[in-house]
Design brief:
This is Pyridine nucleotide-disulfide oxidoreductase. By secondary structure, this protein is an alpha/beta fold. It has helices at about 10-20, 55-60, 65-70, 130-140, 150-165, 185-195, 245, 290-305, 370-380, 390, 400-410, and strands spanning about 5, 30, 70-75, 80-85, 90, 95-100, 100-105, 110, 115, 120, 145-150, 165-170, 200-205, 205-215, 215-220, 225-230, 230-235, 240, 255-260, 270, 275-280, 285, 320-325, 325-330, 340-345, 350-355, 360-365. The protein is globular and about 60 Å long.
Length: about 425
Amino acid sequence: MRTVVVVGAGQAGSELAVALRQTGFDDRIVLVGAEPHLPYQRPPLSKAFLLGKVGQETLRARAPEAYAKAGIECELDTSAIGIDRSTGSVVLADGRRLRYDKLALTTGGRPRDLRFGPDDIAGRALHTLDDALALRERLRHGGRILIVGGGFVGLEVAAAATGLGIAVTLVEAQPRVLTRACPPAVSGFVEREHRARGVDLRTGVSVRRLARRGGGVLAELSDDTEVGADLVLTGVGIAPNDALAADAGLAVDDGVLVGSLAGTDDPDIVAAGDCTRQWNGFLGRLVRLESVQNATDQARIAARTLCGKPTERFAAPWFWSDQYDHKLQMAGVPQAGDTAVVRGDASSGSFSVVYLRDGTLTALHAVNRPREFTAGRQLVTARAAMTPAEAASEDIPLSDLMKRQQRIAERTI
């Protein structure tokens, strides 16, 4: 009997294990997870779950019985500490070894560590379900929270905490929030919304040191001001969990290096999800993508590769963020040199930013425009032709441009 061991019981691991069955793998599948929980979705942790609007059962990637029905063995609360490629086995923290014929690494990522001052004080992170449970309980008691980092997690927690009546200070070292992810128009909108809701949002400011004061902390900032808080949360990005692969001699570079079919430099090992740096056929370069969509798509590709049915499938990467009653949606990954065209009034609560390169649509960021985003994502995937005037004109719906693109595609078949 052949055995596939999947190390990492997150979104990618769950999808990969089930996809193996759906692709025709009939033998043993073992899913190994360091956490005690069955695979769950992480995005709601900083949104609806933190607000208490959804329960733990809603977070599950699949119902518990789905794994039993598919014949997937779940080894939870079990850390993998080594890979012995010479014997084809995974070494577990409890001393056991799991033999594998094929191995899938879906180990995800971890919050980048950030510590402050001579006392080496670290802020709280929000990445796992247990993190979210502890933070939700802490926020129930009110008080003040200092959030370090103006990325999606920090901003989503700021929105949730404000909704719970918590006094929020958010500091971002860059000149604006979402610097790496969004254009200035979207950053400006987000900053205005948070400040309007009472968040003390400070950009171009970092934390020099934290000192304990009573039951809380006192933060000394780079602009020589001080902020008191009962709780500090850091959200400065995710680092890939690639040490297991590196220790086993696999190629890593800020992530496990994989090709377009999710294969590593060992023909018996694939990898998928946040732990990888992949060759992305749509973007035409190596990239590390942290998203549910990528974890799901890449896991399915990896499953087909393991089953001997390799198939490349690349579409425009897409992401989203919910803050207050606003929805931010992004398709594609803009590059330096792309032209950003604002579609609509950026000072309003509804607009888009379209990115063009040599007359081709490369990315779209939509604020409270879900229908436009749906059409825009298809246009980005189709690498549709578009002029700056068309991009800027709201008199030309993106759905009409999609119909034009479909006619062009039909003529080329």
